[in-house]
Specification:
Length: about 400
């Protein structure tokens, strides 16, 4: 089958005007320009569209889709966590399953073909397994009491194992070193990504700098003997304990100093920025330029609908570009394609349109921008995902829009 559009954005070279992609089973067999197009080919044409690699959502909490619009914006982070716990206390397992189904449909509508999803209950795992999405489904674990590390670890593994999922520690402040070490060893042994929240909020920065503040008080309510930190940062703390494995995905990274960024460069870490969540909390300005100067990779995620208003990766691309207009459109697109593909060990399979790669791509319908740059088409306000192809199969956009 051939797919042809006004532009093909390969992310592997210049855009191809009136280009095409040939798919055989689940792979891209070839792509090219109109001059190379066979006359008798069976073709699906997408006028006023661009074809580009499927978008990779590097951080999501699908089960929290049940809380859409229920938590107020702008709360201090510890107050939001308290409100989140109160809201989830009323949720049933069926609420989480239904939320995951709705969330998956929204992901597909927004261009996602691969997602890194983190949940506490495990209810999203079977739903993801039944969906067309390629998923890294992880069960989150947390606990500051080192005496409970083994129990917490085994409980998370038990939830994830039936669905071949992985596990994820929440953060440096919510997990004991013993729990962090166990999770990192497990993920590394199975070739799965290590991802955790790092340097997200002002309160987290204060906790590690002085051992004080509302987040420290919150941690003490959960575990009275929670450690007191001084004169450090989450990144430096993890690095000092050798609990920052090479290639980790560190989510948020809003409060990073120059030493942190140098550690991330040395550890070959990737920072996952979540634009809608960042705006929801009115977080400190994301250090995009400083990370890029030190060649620390940045990719994008949606976070959850309890801390944002959209699971569309197109929305995240647009939001990022509005805040960071100095970033070229090609580089913004890379943050949701080839950069996360490399971070997830899928370089050579996903993130670009190239013969031999997986047939994961989307068609986006939108106006050509005034600049005439086709790479800016997905960033237009009116851009809409018209088609999603995952492993060579077309996703049902009608079902996704219900």
């Amino acid at each position: 089958m051939f797919y042809q559009a006004d532009w093909v954005l390969t992310l592997d070279g210049p855009p191809i005007r009136n280009g095409w992609i040939r798919v055989e089973v689940d792979r891209i067999a070839a792509l090219g320009s109109p001059a190379e197009f066979p006359e008798d080919a069976e073709v699906r044409r997408f006028p006023n569209c661009v074809l580009l690699p499927g978008l990779i959502n590097a951080h999501c909490h699908l089960e929290l889709s049940a809380l859409r619009g229920r938590l107020p914006r702008g709360l201090p982070f510890p107050a939001w966590v308290k409100a989140l716990r109160e809201a989830t206390a009323a949720c049933t397992l069926e609420d989480y399953r239904s939320a995951a189904r709705r969330g998956i449909a929204e992901l597909i509508r927004g261009g996602t073909t691969t997602v890194v999803d983190v949940g506490n209950t495990g209810e999203a795992l079977p739903t993801l397994a039944e969906s067309p999405l390629r998923a890294f489904a992880l069960v989150e674990t947390l606990g500051s009491d080192p005496a409970l590390a083994e129990e917490k670890f085994r409980s998370a593994v038990a939830l994830a194992a039936p669905w071949r999922g992985g596990i994820a520690p929440h953060s440096a402040y919510a997990c004991s070193p013993a729990l962090l070490a166990a999770v990192i060893a497990h993920q590394t042994n199975f070739g799965l990504p290590v991802t955790l929240h790092v340097a997200e909020s002002r309160e987290e920065k204060e906790l590690f700098a002085s051992g004080t503040g509302p987040l420290q008080d919150f941690c003490r309510t959960a575990y009275p003997d929670a450690p007191t930190h001084r004169d450090t940062t989450p990144v430096q703390y993890l690095d000092s304990l050798d609990l920052l494995p090479e290639g980790a995905l560190l989510v948020h990274g809003n409060h990073l100093d120059s030493t942190d960024i140098e550690i991330l460069r040395r550890r070959r870490a990737t920072v996952v920025h979540c634009p809608s969540s960042h705006a929801f909390f009115d977080h400190f300005h994301f250090p995009c330029s400083r990370l890029r100067e030190r060649e620390v990779p940045i990719c994008l995620g949606t976070d959850s609908l309890a801390s944002g208003d959209s699971l569309s990766m197109l929305d995240q691309l647009r939001s990022f570009h509005l805040v960071h207009p100095e970033t070229r459109a090609e580089e913004v697109l890379a943050m949701a394609t080839k950069t996360p593909a490399a971070a997830l060990g899928l370089e050579g399979k996903l993130g670009m349109l190239r013969p031999g790669f997986k047939a994961d791509f989307i068609a986006i319908r939108a106006r050509i921008p005034p600049s005439g740059n086709p790479n800016e088409i997905p960033l237009q306000k009116n851009a809409d995902v018209f088609l999603s192809v995952l492993d060579g199969k077309e996703a049902d956009q009608t079902a996704a829009r219900k």
